[in-house]
Amino acid sequence: MANARPxxxxxxxxxxxxxxxxxxxxxxxxxxxxxxxxxxxxVGRAPSRWLLRASAAWWRSLQYVGMTLHxxxxxxxxxxxxxxxxxxxxxxxxxxxxxxxxxxxGYETAAKTGTKFPAVVNxxxxxxxxxxxxxxxxxxxxxxxxxxxxxxxxxxxxxxxHPFPVAVEDAADALLYLIRSGPELLIDPSKLATSGFSAxxxxxxTSTLRLADHLETLRQAGTQVPxxxxxxxxxxxxxxxxxxPRALKRAASVRPDQTLPETLxxxxxxxxxxxxxxxxxxxxxxxxxxxxxxxAAAIPQxxxxxxxEHDMLMQEGEAxxxxxxxxxxxxxVRYKMIKGVAHAWDKSPDPTKPAEYSEDLYRECCGxxxxxxxxx
Length: 376
Fold this sequence. Notes:
Low-confidence stretches: 1-26
Order of helices and strands: EEHHHEEHEHEHEHEHHHEHEH
CATH class: Alpha Beta
Distance between the termini: 39 Å
Mean pLDDT: 92
Number of strands: 10
Shape: globular
Largest sheet: 8 strands, mixed
């Protein structure tokens, strides 16, 4: 079926799967029967947290080398203009994390004219275990130029030191900070969007769910929340459902040999999915498990999905995009599957050139974001 899909400039453009395309899929009852219920089901016997920290440190060092090479390819991405360290207010795990601000042309003089910019709040990938806020600077370059927006990338706290739900609470806290302090930073709180890659794409979605619930709690307590509006969510190869076993996802991939290795995904899951009795159907962990009512109320109207043909996460991303598009949720969904590429292909460590298709797709995504910012 994948080979029959139309392409534009070599990039597969995919309509969301119709019921006919899904004929022959397993029954709903069979799908429910295979669901994982708790972290123990996904991870097995809980590994030593000390050993997980050591393993995470090793992979973080490899990630640093890979991203250093990634940044060497022309045109080199920008560096942050400034950063802010903020304290967590939502999480029960006290602490702080940083926001990296990349600013567009004209930002330095905007205070004199009273200009306020849209902002794209970004969450990096890495299985909630590795990576940093600067990893998506290549995408940020297009946000600055194509959207004329501030790119705010979040250094949320990582696991295993800070397992679920700290990352999603930090993500929601970052949005709350910009809602409250945006005008001081020349950011218009009525023109916010979220974006993210892989684990960060999960946060781009779940942060809006967590924020909506937190704001409702604040309102019930009589706390005033400044006017704001999240206009769009842009997700790149997201993980949306932890209740489906990784082995089944990998087996269902068009190219199982091209999916992330089990060594890495097992580490990520063991680090993030803790404690062992953690329910995997939490909407803050598996947004595919959220109710229609919750998704309709918390997710902004514009939703952008990019998935990868050779990724084990492709099918769940496509399924959630389809669900968000259809009634009763009825969001404005832009979906594209990129043919012939694996998960996180755009983070290629090739120092000679950017990953194939990546810049065109970054530009396309920013076009959708600009449209969302410009709507009344």
